[in-house]
Amino acid sequence: MTAASNNPVNAVRTVTVVGGGVAGMSAACALAEAGMRVQLVERRGYLGGRASSYLHPGVSEVIDNCQHVLFGCCTNLIGFYRRIGVSDRIHWTNEMTMIEPGGRRSLLGPSWLPAPLHGLPKLIVAHSFTLADKLALGRAFSALIRPVPHDSAESLGAWLARNGQTKGALDRFWRLVIASALNADIDVIALPYAAKVIRELFMNSAQAGSMGMSTLPLSELYAGAGTFLAQHDSRVLFNANVESAEWNEKNAQWTLVTHTGNVTSDFLVLALPFEAMAKLLPHLPDAAGTEMLARQIEHHEHWPICSVHLWFDREITSLDHAVLLDREIHWMYNKSRLQPWRKLKGSYVELVISASRAFAAMTREQAIALAVSELAEFFPEVASAKLEKAALVKEVRATFGVPPGVDAARPNAVSPWPNCFLAGDWTATGWPSTMEGAARSGHLAAEALCQIAGAPRSFLNADLKPRGLMQFLRAGN
Ligand SMILES: Cc1cc2nc3c(=O)[nH]c(=O)nc-3n(C[C@H](O)[C@H](O)[C@H](O)COP(=O)(O)OP(=O)(O)OC[C@H]3O[C@@H](n4cnc5c(N)ncnc54)[C@H](O)[C@@H]3O)c2cc1C
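ok -> C-alpha cells follow
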C-alpha cells in the first residue's frame, strides 16, 4: 500500500505512537520536536518498557527491572537523552574491574596509547588472563579489525574455535563480557554482531567504550520524555492497551481501539516488542506484506536476564561496579554508590545474570542464596554483613537473540500499511537488542514518517568516528 494524506500541507499532522519503550519515546519526541502533535500510547502506567523501574512491593524500594548500561557509542540513545534534557543524569566510567573468586582484581581500561591499542597496557598486566589468554585475545582482536561480511553465516562460537581461543579467554572474556553484552550463548551469536561490539567497546576509541549508568531509577529518567512531549503540544496516554487499528482510506486516518477509548491520527508508529506485534497483527487491516511480516516475527527468540537486588546493613565494597569471574553471577552494580540520593544506612547492590536459562529456572530462595554465597567469594565483607532484604527479578523476555541470518527477519521502518511505520529494538537497525537499537529504530521510523509526510527531516545521530590508528585501519570498511 502507498501512504497518503488528505491534510492541507500546512495543517499540524497528528501521530499516534504505540509503545512507551525507548523506541516509542525516541520516535515520539523527535516527531514532536518536528512540529507534529503526538500521542504516545502505553499500556502500562509508566514509561520505559523493558528499561523501567517500579516500587517493588516485597522490599518497598523503587528498583529497576534490571540495571541498564549504555556506552559512548550509543549516539542515538545519548541524542535522545539530550533532546529530553536528561543526559546529565548518566554516570560515566572508563574502567572495568574484573574480580576472581577469592578477591584478586584486575583493572581494564584505556591508556595514553592510540586506539585500538589504548586498552593494551592494562590487559598486559591483568591477572585475570594468562599469557596464553592474552595472546589469543590479541590475535582475535587483530583479526576483527578486518571487515566481517554483514551476511556471514558463521557464529561467534565457530569463529572463536577457528581462531584458537584458550579456555581462559573463552570463559572470562568471550562468554562473560561479549556474550553477556549480546545476551546469548556464543554459539548462537552472529559473528558480525560480535565484531561490532568488540570494535565499538574495545577498539574504536576510549570514548566509544566508556560505560554509562543512570543515576535515577529508569522510569524517572524516562519521565523526561513525558515532560518533553507536554512542552511540545503532545501527550502520553497511560494504561491504554491498543487492541486493534483501522485505516480509513477516505479521511486518510488511523483509528486505534484501546480499552479506555479510541484514538485517531494521520500517522501511526508501532513501537512494540516482536511478541506484542505478533499479537496485534491479526487485528490490523489486511495488506500485502503482512504475511511476510508475520514470518519474520516468528524467527525471533527471547533470551532471559535475571537480577538479584540485595540490601546489606553495611557497605560490602567501595567499587561502583565489577565483573565477577567464573560464577553464575556476572555483574555487580553498587547502587548505593551510583545513586547516593537513596541515603541508605547500609548498602544496596544489584547482581546481573545474563543469558542464563538455568538461573532463570531457579526459585527465588535458591537464586538469592546462590547469589549471596557467590558474592561472598568476591567480597569477604559479605560474610559479616547482615542481609536485610532481597528481591529477584526474572525478565524471561529480556532481549531477542542475534543468530546468523537474523537480519532477514528484521523489517525496516516502512510497514505494509499506509502512513504506518515500525519501530522497536528488533527492527532493522544493525544493533543487537539494546536501548541504542531501540532509539535508532525510533529515529529511523520518525525519518520515514517525515519523508512520507512531505517534510523530510534527519533524526539519526551520526556514529562516533574511530580515533587514533583505528581511523586508518578502518578506512574504507
Ligand atoms: C533485564 C533486562 C536487562 C537489559 N539490559 C540492557 C542493558 O544493560 N543495556 C541496553 O542497552 N539494553 C538492555 N536491555 C534491552 C533493552 O531494555 C531493550 O532493548 C529496549 O529497552 C527495548 O525498547 P523497545 O522500545 O524496543 O521495546 P519495549 O521496551 O519492550 O517497549 C515496548 C512498549 O510497548 C508497550 N506495549 C506492548 N503492547 C502494547 C499495546 N498493545 N498497547 C500499548 N502499549 C503496548 C509495552 O508496555 C512497552 O512499554 C535489557 C533488557 C532487559 C529486560
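The mean pLDDT is 95.
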